[in-house]
UniProtKB/TrEMBL annotation:
<keyword id="KW-0732">Signal</keyword>
<protein>
    <recommendedName>
        <fullName>DUF2884 family protein</fullName>
    </recommendedName>
</protein>
<feature type="signal peptide">
    <location>
        <begin position="1"/>
        <end position="23"/>
    </location>
</feature>
């Protein structure tokens, strides 16, 4: 019976890990209540009443399915914008993997009979990593806002999309992160 219980525990742990890895293994993301989406390294901007704007990793901009002519400096800013979205996406994935790892470790520790104090210590270490990444995500969001503002000022076609990330969005992110770090 002991062998069956051990196999059961290993199976449960393996299923939890597989589910966690599958949930985190995606190339798509949505942020700012769906106003910014990322799929296959193409950023799509959605603004009510305006056609979608697509930006690829090479800095090409399309609005309503039509290419928009851009200067080399505008193309560079568009590339920075895509990179900022990719940075937020990657940070989110990293946070999810750490969270899934905390859950899988908790499950394994419970099955192995670890004490509450030992489990809490493991969870606190993972939580500290998540808090650090949350701060990075706020920095990434601030970078997106900065590039967005530059694009709206320099590229008239981008102006309707220049309000997706607001100063209050960046400030709220920082406040939330600071509140969590003092918990």
């Amino acid at each position: 019976m002991k062998g069956r219980a051990m196999n059961y525990r290993q199976t449960i742990t393996l299923i939890a890990l597989c589910a966690a890895v599958s949930a985190c293994n995606t190339n798509d993301t949505s942020m700012m209540d769906g106003a910014i989406t990322l799929k296959d390294n193409v950023v799509t901007l959605h603004v009510d009443g305006k056609p979608d704007a697509l930006i690829d990793a090479g800095g090409a901009l399309q609005i309503d399915g039509k290419p928009v002519a851009v200067t080399s400096s505008e193309r560079g800013l568009l590339m920075l914008y895509v990179q900022s979205v990719l940075d937020v996406h990657q940070t989110g994935l990293d946070m999810g993997k750490i969270g899934a790892g905390i859950g899988a470790k908790e499950l394994k520790d419970s099955l192995n009979g670890k004490s509450k104090a030992e489990k809490d210590q493991d969870a606190e270490a993972g939580t500290a990593q998540i808090k650090t990444l949350a701060g990075k995500m706020c920095q990434d969001k601030a970078s997106m806002k900065s590039v967005q503002d530059q694009l709206a000022a320099q590229l008239p076609a981008f102006k309707p999309y220049g309000q997706i990330i607001s100063v209050s969005d960046v400030n709220e992110c920082k406040e939330d992160t600071n509140e969590k770090s003092t918990d």
